[in-house]
Structures are given as C-alpha cells and as structure tokens.
Amino acid sequence: xxxxxxxxxxxxxxxxxxxxxxxxxxxxxxxxxxxxxxxxxxxxxxxxxxxxxxxxxxxxxxxxxxxxxxxxxxxxxxxxxxxxxxxxxxxxxxxxxxxxxxxxxxxxxxxxxxxxxxxxxxxxxxxxxxxxxxxxxxxxxxxxxxxxxxxxxxxxxxxxxxxxxxxxxxxxxxxxxxxxxxxxxxxxxxxxxxxxxxxxxxxxxxxxxxxxxxxxxxxxxxxxxxxxxxxxxxxxxxxxxxxxxxx
Length: 247
Known about the structure:
alpha/beta; single chain; 7 strands
C-alpha cells in the first residue's frame, strides 16, 4: 500500500523531532541555549539580530549566530560586524532549516565557550514553523509594514512562539498600523505570549530582547505556546481573546 502524503510528512517530522530532542539535550548539557528566529523576508530580522549580537559582545556574553539563506552570504557578513562568531548556512533552495542541518554545521564550528546561539531561519513563516531545531526559545518577528492581521494568516508560526517581536516600530504611524488589533490577533492564536516592540534604527527593544534570552539561559520559565511545531493548518487557531501586553 502506498503511503499518503500526510503519512510521509508525519514520518519526516517525527525523524526531525527525534534529532531536535537529541540536539537540545546535547547543547543544553554543554551550556548552550539556542534561539530560533522566524519571520517573513524583509522584517528587519537580520538588522535587529546584529544589534542584539553587538550588545551581547559588549557585555561579554559568549554568543554566536548561524544564519540561513537559499543563496548568498550577505547576512553572515552583516552579522559579523557585531564581533560575534557567525556562520552562513546555505540551504540550496530548501525553504526552511531542519535539525539535521543545524547539527551538521555545529559539529565542527561552534566555539567551545558559547552560551547563546542565535539561529536566523530562512525568511518564511510557513515551512520553518513546522520544524523544531532543538531550540530553547522560539522568537517570531513581524514588521509593522506587514499588517496587523499577520498572526491570523500564519497561526502556526505565531501560535508556536515563546516571544513575539514587532519590528520597525518607527514606521507604525505612516503605515497606518493598528497596534491594538495586532495585539488582539496575537493573543487569539497564542494567549499570554509577550510582545516586544523594537526599532533597530534607534535601538528600541534591543536590550529587552537580549534580557529575555539571557533570562531563559539562566533558567527563567519560558512561555508555553499552545502549538508545537507541526504542519501548518489553514483554519484559525482556537478563539478567545486575552489582554496582551507590549513592553
């Protein structure tokens, strides 16, 4: 009997989950906290990450970053300006990272003293949301220019986030961004998740993001999202608005 597409997908994800769990255990045992960054292309993810890395280096935090793209090493060159060790991972057309790729690139590269590893996933809110990379913290980013209904359009990504970061906050007014509606939509798919506003241009939110990550590294409890990394669904997440908060 031929396997269905769903059966094959579940098998692939189950294998990835096993590798991710093993990688998480290994890295945690070595004192490394992995942060997985997800967003659409053009959200300002690389610029914000570069600022966070630079701030971590200034504070003497042993930090490193791995950035994934389909092609070019442009982002790695930009992030390297922070002074942190950076490695580019080219996916050769694959629209997301998987645990096996991450493990393979870390084996011969990750500096021994690293305590924080940021993984900048491929710019895409669909496929990357389904793959656990062994991260301790999943941050989903969105720019104000993308529209306040983005969480409803991508419920798996936002519903599996431990933290949501709203970028390019300086453009909210000219973009006509409805912040209250955005918060309500985020809370609909992920009740209780924290939202941090950021603007890499003036540094807003940089320290807040770094402090959240350092707190998790140091054992602080992590928000438990309602969704685990799984294939995206087209229906909305369960209804029920909760009051959101922006820091």
